Amino acid sequence: MADWSKLSEELKKLGVQHGAEQLSPPRKKDSKPIESLVHGRDIQTVYGNVFSVNRSFTSDYHHGEIPIQPFSDKNVLCQWAGAPILADRDISSFVFLDTETTGLSGGTGTIAFMIGAARVVGSQLQVEQFFLRNPAEEKAQLSALASFVEGASAIVSYNGKSFDLPIINTRYVLNRIKNPFLDFEHFDLLHIARRVWRRRLKQCNLGKIEKEILGFFRSGVDIPGYLVPEFYRDYLLKGDASQIPGIFYHNENDVLSLLALFNVLADILENPSIEHLPHAQDRLSVGLLMEDLQKNHIVEQMYANDPDEFTNMEEKILTLMLQANLHKRNRDFNKAIPIWEEALELGSFRAGIQLAMFYEHQLNKISQAIYFTQESKRLIDSTEKTHLKEKLLCEINHRLNRLFSKLPGGKDSGTSH
Amino acid sequence: MDINDTLEEWLKESQFFKNIAFRQISPPREARFLPFPEQIPRQIQNLLINKGIASLYSHQAEAIEAISNGENVALSTGTSSGKSLCYSIPILSRQLSDPGATALLLFPTKALTNDQYYAFADFSKALPGKTMIPAIYDGDTPNNQRSTIRKYATILMSNPDMLHQGILPHHTNWAKFFSKLRYIVIDEMHIYRGVFGSHFANLIRRLKRISAFYDSYSQFILTSATIGNPEELAFSLIEQPVRLITEDGSPKGESTFLIFNPPFVDEKLGIRKSSIDYAVHFTQHLIRKNHQTLIFARTRRTVETLLAYLRNRLSKSEQDLVRGYRSGYLKSERREIEDGLKSGNLKAVFSTSALELGVDIGDLDAVILVGFPGTIATARQRMGRAGREQQPSLAILIVTNEAMDQYLANHPEYLIEKNPEHALIDPQYLIILLQHIRCAAFELPFRVNEGFGAMSAEDLSQFLGLLEASGVIVRQGQDYYWLADQYPAAEVSLRSSSPDIVSLNLINNSGETKLIGQVDANTARWYVHKDAIYLHDAEMYKVLDLDLEQGICFLEASQADYYTIPVINTNIINYQLNSSVNYQNFTANFGKLDLEISINSFQKKRWMTNEPLGQGELDMPPQALHTSGFWLGLLPSYIDKLREHNLWGSDPNVYGPNWQDLRQRIIMRDANICRGCGNRFEGSQLHVHHLVPFRNFEDPAIANQASNLISLCSACHRKAEVSVMIRSGLAASAYALRSMAPLLIMCDREDISLITETRSILNEGNPAILVYDNIPGGIGLSKKLYDLRNLWLDHAIEIIQECNCESGCPACVGPVGEPGYGGKKEGLALLRGLRDG
Fold it and tell me: What is the C-alpha to C-alpha distance for residues B169 and B490, in angstroms, rounded to an integer?
């Protein structure tokens, strides 16, 4: 080892805190090798060996309450992911992937020391966890992963678009190995889980989803994600592998939850019904999602909730507005008007604008239109000052001016069409 | 009416004429053209011709040819000499012959990036094919555009901070860009000096290292304002040889440069009329004559004062023709002012440095500098703002009564001929180096036999060993892998030498706090100590409390009519000599120092007049500073020699009509005992001595108060007088040396300190003058002064010699009444003795 004590001394003099307290303790003499703690094997690659743990699951296996065998089509889910071409593809084309890393900040200095990947092979689910006994095995790890995903065409992750995949891509570039994922479609289930459950669950981290949606509860072996980098550092620096089995457990269940969640979401999107979605909040969310996906025949059913099912005022109003909007689309104003009036009563300025538009354009009753516009303005005025508020006030003043000018005696009266 | 006619009118007034310290009329300079170098492809030549550029200025052609031949080039030519073409043509040419080739352009500020972007966008539009994609990548780039830019940009404009925190730590996202990187442009390289420059040089090491990973090796093109050592600076920044080009072939209209020295109010005391009043006066005239004028002031406060004074004198309709421009303004306001200058709607703009760095504001008739801006390079850049096109222009420097200003009034050659300023950096500066080695280790594992820039593998291995021992990196085989759960670049600010920061929190009337900025811990104790008046973005604050341990400072808005300066005491604990030269009268030494810096009080001074308003006490623990310094040790034989030649003797004072009576009374009070040695003497043998020198007082009655008088024997009296004289001679020399230091090294005023000691451990208990770097570890500033010591002494001697004051003033050895008495004569004698050996 190079002599750095003088340098350390010098730095201390300059006020740089590089104390001995930060120096890592020596390696434990009695530390056990990882091979004796976890049942795995060496995979040989052209770049040397990498340690990997492999587990198979038969098709009748359930993760929590959810079978790992797909139980519905995945047309709508694939459409949502922008990959309709994969709708008919066998589930073996999908790789379920999750990484454990040395840090959470990303960038080239963050290593994915464990990459868990799952694929259906034949009638079985194969989970493979490629683990770095030291960072020099990374080339072999990446090469083995590339072999494992060969022939697949989509990746399924949880927050992988902004975290796991950028790191994996970086690792391939740094090791100058061809990246197998470049042409893969990516299903980041975090995004769709948020759209479906955010109203009800508020937070949509994987742990919450496991408990609330999958009915899966982790055992005490599990290592919480935030401790993972620290325990891996302990392993590398002190030779302390005691926490590594917990990380394997954590990672394996992340991957299994991905698969279970994929099946649940495919089913919900394929067959949205009141039976599937007993919570009004979820139906509201799925309805909005279906509207985006232009599945209009389903939307009506999803929106047909009793507003009183919602305790949240924003959701209550939203439900009314969506229902009224469906009537408006069918030009059934007799049904829309009382709903808008109810929403206005509840404080929706948008309902006021809708009413104003109705009176102006459908009935040409300008003074009623002015009344409802002023009601809207009053509601906006009472909110906190934001950029959006300024914009809305600007629009509404514009509308008012236009309406006033249409009044008999208004400055442009008679020229309106 | 052009500006020369206006000037003619002014010159007819004797009040104006007699205060002109210097006047130079530069005749219009003819352009020197050269044909397009053959290396420029036809297509680009045609494009240039279509844009009305039929040939190139000589320096442009020279630069382009050198770049085409694979050389690194540093260009140091005038403010509007068309430097950007020197890099844009080679970049465009290369992209034609080598599709996909990329270039990285680093600008020190965001403002500069926009103008260059539009220039490139214009070019690439005119060239067929889609291979040339210019893009700006900085903090303002919207997130949704970033990934497209990473994938497709070929001409990337960014700044050092973005490269440091956003690009290099994510270089794999830029793999395509880096693998074809051919040119790296460093614009305004003179900005990269001191701490910032030392960071920047290490940033370039990291950039080169990452490029090498992608098998690309780039050429460097650097541009600079005129400084003393462009070649040396360029070499230190990129650690490769560069070809320096300084011959400016661009044309310039006739230009007049004036140094205006406001007349004396009191010549004996060296007090002059206010430079601000004259600036307002001149600006008002220039506006009335319809000449567009830019006025630079040194501080934001001065900008506001100038603006207020001038607006008071203008009619309502004229007031809108005048604006201020400084860093506190919103971006949109700034654009509005820039556009107002370009369109001619604005007639005068008062600005701080915010407007100097190449922000495109078009042609100006006149530029006024209110006070010397601190460096010659900056002064020249600012003056260069006048007369970009071929029409007469005027630049006026209104000097203040400070020493450097007055020196330049007497030595205008520095402003027009070769610039003696050296921009210094130290890439090996330990604290900065370590920070960048961490960043580099994060970006790419270090290999065992790898160096870092010019640093050998052996030297680097110590740093890697230290990082390994701290568990930050781990060695496996031949590589050191980053292991810490950290993103090191996020913790490193390129503008600070200190890793610790203090956050500035404003407390408003309702007790809410708001973060308004941060300063590094090193300077916090100077500027934001308790009760300090602190200027931030043109607003004035008073510090309520500073907690250095927590790194928090609380401030409140203030309307104080004074500013504060800390009184700094330096205690030399230990030193280690690195190099020393012996002369007959003194020794010149350079070495490492262990200092203890305490700030126990601060002075309040009134804005503008600098009139002292009192002191405040402070309770802060002393701070250890390990740094490097240069000291002059005066030999006892030299002191004796001065004493022998009575070079220190002061003129006899007229002590007042009843002096003899008073003298007798004091001797009686002291019972004929010498208060120095304690021996008893005959009354006639005793002298009566003023503790605080007589000439420090205006009123003899106060000087002669009994508490200021003691009885001394002749031997003790001589000693006492000599020590006062030496102290004042030293103080006088120190003041002059301190004032002249910026002429030789480009640094901020607080980057160096200068102290004198009559009994110094640096010089075996004999007098010494010490200058040291205020940055822990030292960054080469005092070293440069050590190397240039003769020049430095010459300059200090000159300012004293040439000053017309009686016994000291702000323009030479400091105002009368500063520690010691005037000391002009003594200081001069002392410095001459040092200069002659």
Answer: 10
